[in-house]
Amino acid sequence: MADQKKKQEKSVFTAKTTKQKYVHILIALVILLVIMHLPAPAELEEGAKSMTLLGIIASVVYLWVTEALPHAASACLILILIPLLGVGDFKSVFSGTFGTDTFAFFMGVFTLSAVCKKSGFSKRLGQMFMLYSSSNSRVPLFGSMLISFIFSMFITDMAAVAMVLPVVIAILTAMNAIPKQSNYGKCLTLGVSWGSIYGGICTPAGVGSNITTMKLLSDLAGMEVSFIQWMKLCFPIGIIGLVVGFIVLQICFKPEVSNIDIDKEQLKKELTENPMTFGQKYALFLFVAVVIAYLLSDKLGLSVALISFMIIPLAILPGIGIFANWGELEKSINWGSIMLAVCGVIVGTLANQFGLAQWITGVVLEPLSTLAAPVQIYAVTLITDIVGILLSSMTITASVCVPLAITFAQETGAPVWATAIAACCASSTVMILVTQTPTLIISYAEGYYTLKDCAKAGIIMTFVSALIVTVVVVACGMPAVPF
Fold first, then answer.
1. Strand partners, 259
2. pLDDT tens column, 18-68
3. Which of 97, 154, 277, 292 is the most buried (most CB within 10 A)?
């Protein structure tokens, strides 16, 4: 642990002193000025605005990586620079962040997490999990990833993480794991997000980008894809990604424990002598009610964001709620993580609106026409991942990249179904930056891993995921149509 800490302190990328922080801030400013004054490609209708937006994105990402400013403060710069530099007006920018259902969803999810923590329900749940599970530390890790994976096949990734994460945090709390220092803590919290990401690609119901892809295949290629046809190609990709992700996490962050040393007899005695309190029972009620509502959201005609937002008043009901007043609840919500998420949304919206993402994708895809089909699949996957960094939204990334991938396949003779799935899977398996998906934002908010930790493992898994997609597609015969 001490050696690991020394390595972190010697990092040339992370600012540690005030002087270093200002140097990085100056470099970020230079990045912004250079990019925004580069000549804009003729294909971009909003050339000047597009280059300025690209400069803002690059400079803020640099600040995130170097940690020259708190991550939420760097995110605030997005809201400031966009109207200040004429990319958009402040009213539209603000309403496009805090006026979206993404903001409402996170408010609700973080409230549920706070309810589980304050009531002691998450701790009790973790104690019960440890009481009946193996002492091998790999079992809770893979188990939590698998549960998140299964949930995410049928409900949103965000909802799956929101349901599994309290159990994981309870385990880490019982182990006295230190946030940002415990490698096992990094594996567990990142693992829950990764599990949901790979589960989400397995079925059409998993994530919004899957539905978007099915619609685009129908409109642009005349292909109607059934639930089973989707799973035949995507489930193998998802399950292999889950297993490989389980291995990669342990390579990137070697757990400091091989066995969870817990006195099960003492734990059993403690649970017996301390029955569930009213607060814990109420937290359990809210938790189960939210899970059921998530699962039945379509039949109920309610959005996941609305269901999540309804948790807030229920958490502070007089005499029943876990929190006595709003101020108490307010202190338990990670506002910085919400800021990261909503700022990512506005960046993605503007990049799509100005045609910046489409231009980048088109420029890169054109030279691929001469490559072998398997190489094309691998390249399409990687390119979509890169575009996903700009857009910070799975659905928007799919909306931009999948139609381009379909058109590319039709013009070059590449298999349309295989190429479209490659782009779709890539749009859903974005995991380099925390801001690329709310799924990562939720686990990041618990504080057990840093942005650099996420990028370190995410970069590796991005390349591996592209390889997994390619191998599975080739093994299935590079299908041009659903089978």
1. 136
2. 888 899 999 999 999 999 999 988 777 778 888 998 899 888 878 877 778
3. 97
The residue written with tokens 């400079």 in the block is 59
Q: Judge contact between 114 and 332, C-beta under 8 A.
A: yes
DSSP state of 259: B
DSSP secondary-structure letter at 136? B
Query: 347-377, pLDDT tens digit by residue?
Result: 767 776 777 766 766 677 777 777 888 888 8
Cα radius of gyration (the chain): 23
Task: Output b/e per residue, 201-235; b: 16+ Cβ within 10 A.
Answer: bbbbbbbbbbebbbebbeebbebebeeebbeebbb
CA-closest candidate to residue 172, choices 63, 94, 260: 260
Rounded-to-integer distance, Cα 185 and Cα 188, Å: 5
The secondary structure of residue 205, as a DSSP letter, is T
Dihedral angle over CA of 357, 360, 366, 370, nearest 10: -110
* Contact indicator for 103, 338 with CB cutoff of 8 Å: yes
d(CA 346, CA 88): 10
Query: CA-based angle 45:47:51, to the nearest 5?
Result: 145
For residues 404 and 69, is the Cβ–Cβ distance under 8 A?
Answer: no
CA distance 385 to 429: 8
Copy the structure tokens of residue 142.
């893979």
Q: Hey, what are 418's tokens?
A: 């295989």
If we measure between CA atoms, which residue out of 162, 182, 459, 460 comes closest to residue 337? 162
Greater confidence, 299 or 159? 299
C-alpha closest to that of 392 among 90, 81, 87, 75: 75
Per the structure block, which two tokens stand in for 436? 């690329």
- The DSSP result for 235-251, as a single string, is HHHHHHHHHHHHHHHHH
Spatial separation of the C-alpha atoms in residues 138 and 144, rounded to whole Å: 10
> Residues 403, 408, 410, 416: is their CA dihedral positive or negative?
negative
Q: Give me the count of residues in the chain.
A: 483
Residue matched to tokens 């690329």: 436
Q: Does the pTM of the predicted model rise above 0.70?
A: no
